Amino acid sequence: MRVLLIEDENRLAENVARSLRENAGYAVDIAGDGEHGLYLAETTPYDLIVLDLMLPKLDGHSLLVRFREHGHGTPVLVLTAREEKESVVKLLNAGADDYLAKPFDLGEFMARAKALVRRGTGQRAPIIAIADLQLDTVERTVRRGQKEIALAPMEYRVLEYLAHRPRAVVSKTELLEHLYDYNWEKFSNVIEVYISGLRRKIDDLHAVKLIHTVRGHGYALRPGP
Amino acid sequence: MSSTNNIAHKPPVRTVRTFSLTRRIITGVVFCQLLLALGLTLVAVLFARQELSGAFDTALEGNAMSTLALVRYTEATPPTLLFDASLRPPAPDQKHKDLYEIIDADGKLVTRSSDWAEVPAVLLNTRTRYTDFEQGTVPYRAVVMRNVPILDSEEDEPGEDEGPPAKVTVIFASALVANQERLMALAAYVGGTSLFLLLIANGFAARSVRRGLNPLHELASQAGAISVHNWKFRPSPGVKLANELSPLVAAIETVLSRLQESFRQQRDFTDDAAHELKTSVAILKSTLQSLIHRPRTQVQYQEGLERALQDCARLEDLLARMLRLARIERLNENGTRTKIPTTELTSTCEAAISRIRSLADARNVRLDFESPVAVSVRADPEDLELIWMNLLENAVHYSPAGSAVKIRVSPNGGKTAEVSVVDGGPGIPATELPHIFERFRRGDPSRSRATGGFGLGLAICKALVDAYGGKIEATNLPDRGMQMRVQLPTDWN
Fold it and tell me: Which one is predicted more confidently, B9 or A57?
């Protein structure tokens, strides 16, 4: 999962980004002003956008209006220091999916962020089940049958992304785009390494294989071929 | 604390007597009308008196002549004069009977009315025809007719032997009492009627004054309805078109728009201040929360706590600046600063430069200071240093690496001294220029945010300069850089 954080307050952005990376395993890009934020939001496939309202160059509200006008459906969580009812109403009507008033609780922020990411992919339940595979997106644990499976952080992120789009074929490029932020060099063979690791840990001892390679297209997480 | 103080120091309530405009106006009207009635009565009485006295004199003369007609000659020779009192008609006013005396040419008394003991000397000696005098306490008016010939009415043609007719002096007086009573009655009549009409007229006047003051009541109720939540003030045409009220309406409208503007500014300030405070708290909170979210190593905790301390310092800085600004602005409002020292400008500039030096070095910005002459202004050295610090900090932030910030002190003619700070930046958009001294205003927020600015520095500068009766202005230089000019009075009273 990849998140865009548009926030001009460096320290706050750092803290929020660290929390998103450490607690949810999300890739995070930070934009320091509205114009840069809008550019990134429109050119990169994010799973969630966290938007501060008071921004230099282009304020958060105008950014949101333009972003939605251009037809983008990415979930947007707005951070605001003003709690007046009208401004909240204005925000939601402009296309925000949720908002949090500063100073907010990081735990609440993470919960809302995860909920929005789930909603963005049509997954409502925090525990995603595919056959006997269970993925707890809150605790970030994976079990198959009764057995808990220990995954490396990147392996979990790949599996989580696939689990949010069950049965669909997800390309390597899509995986790369959603799992890494701009600061990482991207090599597609890295994905193959994580997929083979996942196969070994999830499918090896089971008759029903869940991870499938669709040649020339990508990967899919589903009970059948 | 402060609220209890306020109650304790409340001035004692003085009872002030209120007054009614309606009553004042009506009192004025009544007074004028009273004067009018009085004048009218006076004129009427004077006129009547003149008319009456003319008629009185004619009647007096007539009475004198008819009394004279009762004098005739006796049969004796030579004939003497005889007065036949029995022919006199009875007096209409028994109390104040007419008085008369007739004397012949030799001064011998022919007749005198029985009530008249002695004719006053003033009548005997007078040369005028009519004379006023008092008989007892009663005012009388007399006619004195001298050398009136007595013709014998019974002789158809006077005989040759009789010689010239005898000549007498007649004095006839009537009491003025009746005349005076008539005058009094007239005065009472005219005065009474005037007063009665005055009462009726004032009833109407009071009514129309009350009705005339209706727009004033309307204005009052509309002004009373104004509050922070309702700035609407739309007086009806009846109020607006009244010449007497239109200055008041205009004044209320002006005051209202100023109040509304200052309320808006206050609200903006509160919003901005809340935003900055919340953001600062949000940073601190997020730093601490991200630290305790998962187990950390000793070193990570150490780093995290240091970050939290930095966040606290930022919050403290914000609070200090806001409080400082509030304090200066409060001082400005109260307008009282006593014991202002005279301060040399160069030393305060140098102090500020030395404190900003490390920041300038870190950003590789040169500080050029030029102070050709020593100039002193009336200001507190600490306040001056704070002004220069804020201006320099701002200038250094906006100057790219390798450029220079120029500070120059100049005696500006003598009455004021000027300090100018020019940065090496690109200047700021002309639309921003009028706003840069507003609180929480940032020319380019992303840049000053990155350096920890709150947009309070220039607002503090302006408040301080205002406090010393000076001027501060920002201009873009034609080639490059923005210039801040501070002018302070050298001898400020």
Answer: A57
Q: Mutate which of A5, A10, A12 to test chain B, going by most B C-beta atoms within 10 A?
A: A12
pLDDT in tens, B360-407: 888 899 999 988 888 888 888 888 888 898 899 888 888 888 999 999
Phi and psi, residue A63, nearest 5°: -60, -45
Q: How many residues does chain A have?
A: 225
User: Would you state the structure tokens that stand for residue A221, as one six-digit string?
Assistant: 């997480």
Residues in chain B: 493
Q: What average pLDDT score do residues B128-139 get?
A: 86
Residue B447 has what pLDDT? Answer: 41
**B289 with A19: Cβ contact below 8 A:** yes
Long-range contacts formed by B190-195: CB under 8 A, 24+ apart:
B190/B40, B190/B41, B190/B44, B190/B45, B191/B37, B191/B38, B191/B41, B194/B36, B194/B37, B194/B40, B194/B41, B195/B37
Q: CA B143 to CA B100: how far, in whole Å?
A: 9
User: What pLDDT is stored for residue B6 in this prediction?
Assistant: 45
CB within 8 Å of chain B, chain A residues 132-171: none
The mean pLDDT value for B226-237 works out to: 81
Q: Which residues have a Cβ under 8 Å from the Cβ of A222 and sit 6 or more positions away?
A: A130, A166, A167, A210, A212
- Judging contacts by C-beta atoms under 8 Å, the chain A residues touching residue B307 are 11
Secondary structure class of A181 (helix, strand, coil): coil
Spell out which residues of chain B touch residue A106, defining contact as CB-CB under 8 Å: 285-286, 289-290, 293
Contact status of A54 with chain B (Cβ, < 8 Å): yes
Q: Give contacts of A102 with chain B, Cβ < 8 Å.
A: 278-279, 281-282
**Interval B406-412 mean pLDDT:** 88
| pLDDT tens figures, B67-81 | 888 887 877 777 778
Residues from chain B that touch A34, judged by Cβ atoms under 8 A, are none
- Classify residue B92 as exposed, middle or buried by CB count within 10 Å of its CB (0-12, 13-18, 19+): exposed
Nearest alpha-carbon partner for B449 in A81, A12, A8: A8
Residue B158 or residue B290, greater confidence: B290
- Give the residue from A6, A9, A11, A30 with the most B CB atoms within 10 Å of its CB, the best one to mutate: A11
- Give pTM, 2 decimals: 0.59
Helix/strand/coil for A50: strand
| pLDDT at residue B493 is higher than 50 | no
Q: Which residue, A6, A10, A8, A64, is CA-closest to B444?
A: A8
pLDDT for the residue A120: 84
All residues at 6 or more sequence positions from B440 whose CB lies less than 8 Å from its CB, including other chains: B269, B272, B273, B275, B276, B454, B455, B456, B459
pLDDT of residue B74: 77
CA pair distance A13, A7, nearest whole angstrom = 6
Residue pairs between chains A and B whose CB atoms are closer than 8 Å: 80
Q: How far apart are CA B112 and CA A188, in angstroms?
A: 162
Q: Which residue has the tokens 């001056």?
A: B384
Helices (H) and strands (E) in chain A, counts: 8, 11
Tokens coding A59: 């304020």
Is the CB of B281 less than 8 angstroms away from the CB of A12?
A: no
- Chain B residue with CA closest to A34: the answer is B446
Positive or negative, the CA dihedral A203, A209, A214, A217 is negative
Enumerate residue ranges in chain A where pLDDT < 50.
none
**Chain B residues with CB inside 8 Å of A107's CB?**
289, 293
